[in-house]
Amino acid sequence: MALTRRTLIKTGATLAAASMAPAIVRADTHQWRVAASLPMTGPFATAGQLVAPAFSEFAKQVNDSGGIGGKPIRIEVEDSGYIPRNALANFQRAMASGPLHFYFGDSTGFMELVGPTLRGDNAVMMGSTSFASVLARPAERPYQFMAGPTYEDQFEILLKDIADRGGKTVAFVFSDTEFGRDPLAHGRRVAAELGIQVVLEESTAAEGANIESHVTALAQANPEFTILQGYVTGVWPQLIGGARAFGLQTQFMGTFWGMEKIIADRVTDQAGPFLDGYQGVMPYRYFYDQEDAPYYRELAEFKRNNVPNFSGYVTAWELEGRLNLELWKLCMERVIEADKEVTPDNLMAELASIRNWDSGGFFGRPVDVVDNKIGQGRVYRYNASNKLYEPASDWITV
Fold this sequence. Notes:
Blueprint: H1 12-19, H2 23-29, E1 32-38, H3 45-51, H4 53-64, E2 73-79, H5 84-96, E3 102-105, H6 108-114, E4 126-128, H7 151-164, E5 169-175, H8 178-181, H9 184-193, E6 197-204, H10 211-221, E7 225-229, H11 235-246, E8 251-254, H12 261-271, E9 279-282, H13 294-306, H14 316-337, H15 344-352, E10 376-383, E11 388-391, E12 396-397
Parallel strand pairs: 1-2, 1-3, 3-4, 5-6, 5-7, 7-8, 8-9
Antiparallel strand pairs: 9-10, 10-11, 10-12
Helix pairs in contact: 4-14, 5-6, 7-9, 10-11, 14-15
């Protein structure tokens, strides 16, 4: 991993020596390795399967353009089933297979499990699907980052939006996972500061939840607003559908993983427009908003030329994976251009120095990386008639 721009040009003697090395070492001398765990099976398999193309297509796009510093990247993806110990085993195998330059984790549980072990020779720059608040503590987690705002930030954005609309009561409904519980304590504090009463905290299963029971609890609490946290598919639309069938008027709101257009569209097609008006926080532009998003236009052109039957839409989940990879690539390029060693410490130092970055369209405004996160987001509202999430607020920085 201690490679600089100078080492990209080797003498003939060095190349000859490399040719006698074991195959895995020879391969790693000439490429950057990126590995990932994704939940290709299990409760969040839909998300894993939709994120996966970000990795293979990113590798092709970068390698077709000459790689990074003249070297290609190699992508290795394994299934975790959304089980942290499985993801940890995947990570350990990847580390044991040779120099590893970036790792992408599948969950809050995995990132919390592996974080304390990232020291010394076991250190590697690491992104993930998670927006866990613990990842925004560089002193404790110096090699982990997120491509957006924390779940705490997302709750704060939603609660500020509720306060701006004069809301006084809110319910927190969350999955019984690290993912689901993450922002609750912060949400309580922010709600209290804004004069909003939390009238219900309801925990559900991540899949197969008892919808009738949870809707009954919501009916008894009767909140003006209900924030759903810790879901990907299944439960959050079922909760909203059950509540609407029961006649509840609470305004449902979600965070990133509950804001994917294709899920809302599928529910609308199958069960009618009961998600109309559903709102939530999204860190990024949706892919159909390309007017001021040159990266999105470039990605769309690449997909039209390389992905059979490309629909023209890229999921927000895939964009999250893409942004993690783009941030790693940006740090790699800066380290190589500065003629520094490609090490986890140098990569993370470059990440921490990012200020006023024009992301090419992911974010609505130029962004800073502060505490290993990007604290910007926007509230969107689902319109069931045109099947678009439409802006319900300006871009908000926290």
